[in-house]
Every structure is written in structure tokens, then in C-alpha cells.
Amino acid sequence: MTMSEWLKRKTGRHGERMPVGATSVEALLVALRDGDPAARRQAAIALGDVGDSRATGDLIRSLDDRDDVVRVEAVIALGKIGDARAVEHLIAKLKSQDYLYVRKKAAYTLYVFLKQERLDPGLREKILSHWRSWYLT
């Protein structure tokens, strides 16, 4: 289901672009908890595209979604947002027994975090340590 279809279902409006701002982020956060996994997937994608750090906590919770693709999209979105609060959770995904693609995306996302110039040196070292450990196993 596309975000446009989800909006039509929820609001009766179709084809309207969702304005980026507080209201759109709030609507996407609601969609992230929708019963339909397709709506949750699209919400995670859109939240990553918007890049608003207010979504970080909800996306972190989505790392435990029952749908594999929602978890993958949550990982990708967290990488796009770039909020350091996600690092510990991404490391946990890397070390988990989760779906392999989720772990691979977590590894790549941690690599993306390493390229941030503003990243705390201690956090950078922690990411490197876990990333190397994962990569070499």
C-alpha cells in the first residue's frame, strides 16, 4: 500500500501531497503503528525521507516490528535521519539473530554513521569495534 492509498483510506483524500512539517510527521508516526504492515513500511520510508529526528524513537521501536520489511525500512530510515540515539539499537540488531537482510542493512547504516563528521569519537570507536566484529565473522 502506498502512502497515498493509506491517506485516502484514513482521510478520504487521494492524490494530495502531504505537507512536510509537524502535522505530516505526526500522521506518519500514526501510520507507523497501523495494523497493516504495508502502511507501516511506507510510513518508515517516508519518515526517513523527511529526516525529522522526532521520528527516531518510534523508528527504534519499529526495529522490533513483526514484519521483516518494516524492520529493514526502519533501519534505513534511521540511517537517513542520522540521530546518534539509534546507534546502540542498530548495534543490537547487528548482533541479533534477526532476518539476515535486517542485519546487513544495520551494518551498512552503522557504516553511514561512521562517515558523519560530528559523530562522538567514543561512539565512532564503538561502532567500528562492533562493525569489524560482525564483518569478520
**N- to C-terminal distance:** 37 Å
| Average pLDDT reading | 86
Number of domains: 1
- In CATH, the topology is named Leucine-rich Repeat Variant
Measured by DSSP, the beta-strand proportion falls in under 5%
Number of strands: 0
Structural class: mainly alpha
Per CATH, which architecture? Alpha Horseshoe
Helix percent reads 55-70%
Instruction: Catalogue the unreliable spans.
Output: 11-18
> Quick one: overall form?
globular
The CATH class: Mainly Alpha
Secondary-structure element series: HHHHHHHH
Structure characteristics:
Leucine-rich Repeat Variant, 137 residues, mainly alpha, globular, 68% helix, single chain
Write the layout of secondary structure elements.
Elements: H1 3-11, H2 22-31, H3 37-50, H4 56-62, H5 68-81, H6 87-95, H7 100-114, H8 121-135
Helix pairs in contact: 2-3, 3-5, 4-5, 5-7, 6-7, 6-8, 7-8
